[in-house]
Amino acid sequence: MRNLKVDGDRLWASLMEMARIGATPKGGNCRLALSDLDAEGRRLFIRWCEEAGCTVTVDRVGNIFARRPGRNPDLPPVMTGSHLDTQPTGGRFDGVYGVLAGLEVVRTLNDLGYETEAPIEVAVWTNEEGARFSPAMMGSGVFAGIFGVDETLAKPDNFGPATFGEELRRIGFAGEAPVGGRPVKAYFEAHIEQGPILEDEGKTIGVVTAAQGQRWYEITVTGQESHAGTTPMRKRQDALVAAARMVEAVNRIGHAHPPDAVATVGALQVSPNSRNTIPGRVFFTVDFRHPVDATLSIMDEELKRECRGIAEAARVTVDITDFWYFPPTPFEKRLVDSVRSAAKAQGLPHRDIISGAGHDAVYLARVAPTAMVFVPCKGGISHNEIEDAKKEDLEAGCAVLLNAILAEANA
């Protein structure tokens, strides 16, 4: 029983049916968190789980848990899952693969009449992407005690006047179950890699040993608005020129810590955004990532020193807000070994890998032993409508997930 297979055709069909909800013209998906389309995807998942004999509960921030009972109901569950929400121009596999791979594990065990010792739960975490409500990984963060329930329910919509709690109630997913505070025997998450390493090296399985740390910033540069035609260059306090130099500094810092550092300015807003007015205010975001916390701290120091020096030279002011931070997260060695052993038993080419992206597993690792399974995605492209993955790779990753879960559920 250490080399069980799953039904790859059934898994693929489920992925494609879910992909119809929020389908976009280029073959991707848009199911923003707590939108009507997110609710439709959630209802489809719940229907499938109930048809598979699972008991479904929803907690106060909308996290969904579908439980398949085990022989010993007193044991904490072995949990797996991911998210159903997407980026505004997201793909068909990011997040949803981990959810439906978990469902396929349940369906396969049902087909075999296999009863595990511990219960198995498939989780859908609310607002992993952070596209509509910030920050990301919100539902799993509340479950792990990182964020409070009330503060999360009050989070504003990035695109409108509603709050997280209002939209949760509107779509019918404001559950009554408490958030977290209960034991989890282990947590596994299957996911597309969202990078090019596995595909480049011809590996089917990524055995994820850790997730790199992240620091997010919000930076506001304030100068002085003035007429573009009448203000001499020497008299200007141009917020955009200063911000442009800071953006270049962000890129330089990323290049200064190879090979693992990445540094990104992903959003920028210019005010008053008029062609004949010198910009008086610029807001932009910075995303730093590195698997070594000490290096991440050095990058933090360099960013703040560079920005303040640039601001002084340009005679503008700069406000740097530390918006979000989590340290590098090593995953549980025992569970990582289970993933590696399952890949070997399946005869699948595999390699150890560090996750460059944040995942719900990062927060679950705060409260339970955790590991992840990666499979390749075409060109390493994700957060894009053209995101793609091979059916046989998704099937292989799900089989590895199944066998790793069984090793833990019966331990």
Protein architecture, described:
The chain has 411 residues and is of the alpha+beta class. The protein has two domains: 8-212 and 328-409, Zn peptidases (Aminopeptidase), CATH 3.40.630.10; 213-326, Alpha-Beta Plaits (2-Layer Sandwich). Helix content is 35%, strand content 21%. The chain contains twelve helices and 16 strands. The strands form three sheets. Strands 1, 2, 3, 4, 5, 6, 14, 15 and 16 form a nine-stranded mixed beta sheet that branches. Strands 7, 9, 10, 12 and 13 form a five-stranded antiparallel beta sheet that branches. Strands 8-11 form a two-stranded antiparallel ribbon. A hairpin with a 5-residue loop joins strand 1 (55-58) and strand 2 (64-68). Helix 3 (96-112) crosses helix 12 (391-409) and helix 10 crosses helix 12.
Features:
411 residues, alpha+beta, Aminopeptidase, Alpha-Beta Plaits, nine-stranded mixed β-sheet, five-stranded antiparallel β-sheet, 35% helix
Give me the count of strands.
16
* Annotated CATH architecture of the largest domain: 3-Layer(aba) Sandwich
Distance N terminus to C terminus? 14 Å
Corresponding CATH superfamily of the largest domain:
Zn peptidases
- Mean pLDDT figure: 97
| Fraction in helix | 25-40%
Q: What is the string of helix and strand elements?
A: HHEEEHEHHHEHEEEHEEEEHEEHEHEH
Q: Which shape, going by the Cα principal axes?
A: globular
User: Could you tell me the radius of gyration in angstroms?
Assistant: 23 Å
State the secondary-structure class.
alpha+beta
The total of helices stands at: 12
CATH topology of the largest domain: Aminopeptidase
